[in-house]
Design goal:
Structural class: mainly alpha
CATH class of the largest domain: Mainly Alpha
Strand order of the largest sheet: 3-4-5
Distance between the termini: 82 Å
CATH topology of the largest domain: hpI Integrase, Chain A
Radius of gyration: 25 Å
CATH architecture of the largest domain: Orthogonal Bundle
Number of helices: 13
Number of strands: 5
Order of helices and strands: HHHEEHHHHEEEHHHHHH
Number of domains: 2
CATH superfamily of the largest domain: Intergrase catalytic core
Helix content: 55-70%
Largest sheet: 3 strands, antiparallel
Length: about 300
């Protein structure tokens, strides 16, 4: 059985291109499921599992208000579904026992992207931090917002990955073990240059790392998350500010500026345009502005025709 699980792990990483964290979670869930089955006196071979066996496992564990946690249910279901589909593809079993089990709907809490005013307040909050880390903090905020990089991608950046000719971060390892080139504007080039001048005067322990802590080691994801959260509070923004919110805000602002979804999809590194659509949020009053703009365009066209007549 351990050989089968090891092969499933390889399948997730190599064929399905799942990330390391997702692969580890799925494998842990499958192991837990099989251990759960072994603990039952009546448990049979894993290949004879049916829908009820899966439901019994899904209902066990984390409970909220007397019911299994919806997120835990969905995560476990995804792992079991992937495992048994893998067995179906190998013709070890004929039917996936999870196919008729429904995912639980989770009410989405749509993040409200930062307005441009709020983002400028965030930058000013970074500019008010200690001189020792000021240029770094400004650079982090500007990079996250202007490139739509994920926080894990930002902290993984190395100095030698900065392409100063093309104004881009080269070979950024992104979600799903893919690679992208993240372009940045002149503004980001300027704040990076100022930060690197300060960085050069310090003792650096993690030589290649672009963003380093006060100790000179590569900044962690948690440290950047905490930094952005603290800057949001200092800026007086009345909701939690996270690196991921900056990513949403970047996508929304790009669309507001007239950028097509295909281009935004490429910038964000999304495999599917539907994912990009979930990142883009309609600003309040955008429908009125769009309708008024359309009416103005029609009016201009009519007037131009009348003048030409």
């Amino acid at each position: 059985m351990q050989d089968r699980i090891a092969a499933f792990e390889t399948y997730l990483r190599v064929e399905r291109r799942r990330g390391a964290s997702t692969t580890a979670r799925y494998v842990d869930i499958v192991r837990s499921f099989l251990a759960h089955r072994e603990a039952l006196a009546s448990a049979s071979d894993f290949t004879t599992v049916d829908r009820n066996d899966c439901l019994e496992f899904l209902r066990s564990g984390t409970v909220v208000a007397g019911e299994p946690s919806r997120s835990v249910w969905n995560l476990r279901l995804s792992a079991l579904r992937a495992f048994y589909q893998y067995l179906v593809d190998l013709e070890v079993i004929v039917k996936n026992p999870t196919h008729r089990i429904e995912r639980h709907k989770i009410a989405s809490r749509e993040p409200i992207p930062l307005s441009m005013t709020e983002f400028l307040d965030l930058v000013e909050a970074a500019e008010r931090t200690s001189p020792l880390v000021r240029s770094r903090n400004v650079a982090i905020v500007q990079v996250l917002y202007n490139t739509a990089l994920r926080v894990a991608e930002a902290v993984s950046l190395d100095v030698d990955r900065v392409d100063w000719d093309a104004y881009a971060f080269r070979d950024v390892r992104t979600k799903g073990n893919k690679w992208l080139s993240a372009k940045f504007p002149d503004l980001v080039a300027g704040v990076l240059e100022r930060y690197l001048e300060d960085r050069a005067r310090r003792k650096i322990l993690s030589e290649g790392a672009l963003f380093v802590s006060e100790r000179g080691t590569r900044l962690s994801i948690r440290a950047v998350q905490q930094l952005v959260r603290d800057l949001g509070t200092a800026a007086g923004i009345q909701r939690p500010v996270t690196p991921h919110l900056l990513r949403h805000s970047c996508a929304t602002e790009l669309v507001d500026l007239g950028t097509g979804l295909k281009v935004v999809q490429q910038i964000c590194g999304h495999a599917s345009q539907s994912t990009t659509e979930r990142y883009v949020h309609v600003r309040a009053g955008a429908d009125r502005a769009a309708i008024d703009a359309l009416g103005s365009a029609v009016d201009r066209g009519l007037k131009a025709r009348r003048r030409a007549a």
